[in-house]
C-alpha cells in the first residue's frame, strides 16, 4: 500500500471520529448479548514449538470474572490478567509437548457464571504445507475483488457495512472472490506461474473503499464476500494440488477503524495515540538517520497511515503477542506458503524482528518478503537480511523485499529514449544483501501506473520488459492483466485496479481465452507464456548465477549460468534502431560454446562472434556446446 491520494481515501472511507457511534451490525448486536463474544485465537494446536499461548477473551463485563481451568493433562494456566477495559481478560496457558488434542474447559466466575470449551487441535502434516517461495517461483499478483466472480451468491452480505455491488465505481465492491481465482488456475499455469499473491483476503468491513483489503476489521476471518474461512483453507489445498503456492498479504502496522479491537479497545495503549489526529511522515530515513530527531522517528513509526487506519502499538508486548499468534494461526490453519508484508518499515523495529523470528522458528521454510517503498538500494537493503551493523538495536531478519529499485530501473529502461544502465546499477548494489535472490522483482502493481501506459503503450518495449522480468535474478512477479496489456495511470489508484475482462459472466469478452484477446493482447500473452514456461523448465533461470556486463551503446547484456554448463545469454537493446554487437567482449562467458538456440523464436544461432539486435528487442539465447 502506498501513500498517494490519502485525502481522497479519507473522504471515501470516512474519518475515524464517528466510528464509536456507528450503528452496530446484526452480528455485533448478537455479540453484545453474549457473555463471551469471542476468544482470540479462535482455537489452537498441540505440538507447537512455543508452548505459551495468550488468549484474549472479549465479552461484556468479563474482566470481573475469575478464571478457572479444569484439569487437562499437559496444559496449565499461568494466570489471567485484567486490562483497562471491563470487556477483556487475558488468559495465559502453557501447552506441554505431551498435551493431546481436545477441549479445554474454562469457567469464568463473575457477576454471571460462564463456561467455555476451547479447542486444541492436532497439527496437520504434509509436504505441500508452508512450502515457502523462492527464486524458482513466478508470482501472479491480483486483487480478488477485481479478478473474477466465481460465486455471485456472496456478492452482497447483509451483515456487512457496504452492501452494494457497483462495477462502474472504482471504489465499490465488484464481486470477485476466491472461487473466481480458483476457476482460472489453468490460465495461470499456462504462463508458467507457480505462486498466487492476492491482496488481503481477511475481513474489511469498512463502509466504503474496502475492496483493496488493507484495512482489516477482523484478524481471524476471511472477508465473507470472498468466501468463508474453510473455503480459503480449501483454496490453499486446491492451489497446492495444482502446483500453485499461495502468498498471504498481511498488514502489521495498522487496522481498519471498524476493527472490533478499535471500536472497543482493550487498553488505551493498544493503539498509538496523539492529542489530535497525526499522520505518519512516511519517511523511513528517520529510522536510521544518524542525525535524526526523535520527533521525526515518532511521527514515522507511531503516526497513523490514514484517518481510517489506526496505528497499532506493537511496542506493547501484549499487542505484539496477539499479532504474532494470529499469523502463526493462519499458517497452521491453512498451510499457506508465504507472507507478503504491507508497509513493512512503518512497524515498530523491535516488533518486526520478534515477529519474523517467531514465524521462522516455527516454520523455517516460510517465504517472507516486505514492501519497503524507499528511495535507494541501501535503504531498501536495510529492511532485508543484509551485511550492515545493527542500528539502534535493529538488524533486519526479513528474508527479502519487493525490489522497488529494479522496478524504477526497468521503467527508465523501457521509456522512450530510456537508459538500460539503470538496470545494471540496480543489481550492482546487491552486495548489501545477504541474498538478493530472495527479493521480488516486478514492473508494476496496484499502487502505481501500469507499465504499459508508462512506456507509451509500446508492445516491443513491454516485451523487452517481460524478458528482463523472467530472466533476471530474484522472484518475478506479474501484476494481473499486464500480460494482456491492461493499462491506465494511478491518479486515482482505482484506474489501475480494473476488472479482468472475462471474469464476470456478463462481460462482453473473455480475455482468459485466446478468442477473447485482440491480436496485440495475444502477442503479449504468448510472449509471457513462452518465457514463463521456459523459465519453469530451466533451473538455470531460477537458481543460476548472474554475470552482468557494463552496458555499452545502451545495450545491456547479462548471463545466467550454473556449474553444470547451462548458460542463458540475455541482451536488451534500449535503442529504437538496430545495433551491431561484437560478442567477443563476452568471451568470459561465451568460451566453450559454439552455437545457441533462440528461446523465443526457436531458431539456431551458429555465429557467436557478432549479432545484430533490432531496436527495442530482447535476445534470449540458450548457449550450446
From TrEMBL:
Where does the record locate the signal sequence feature? Answer: 1-22
The segment(s) forming the Glycosyl hydrolase family 13 catalytic domain are 141-535
Q: Which CDD domains match?
A: AmyAc_bac_CMD_like_3 (cd11340)
InterPro entries, per the entry? Cyc-maltodext_N, Cyclo-malto-dextrinase_C, GH, GH13_cat_dom, Glyco_hydro_b, Ig-like_fold, Ig_E-set
State the Pfam families in the record.
Answer: Alpha-amylase, Cyc-maltodext_C, Cyc-maltodext_N
Q: Which domain of life is it from?
A: Bacteria
Q: Which GO terms describe its molecular function?
A: hydrolase activity
Instruction: Please provide the record's keywords in A-Z order.
Output: Glycosidase, Hydrolase, Signal
Protein's name according to its UniProt entry: Glycoside hydrolase family 13 protein
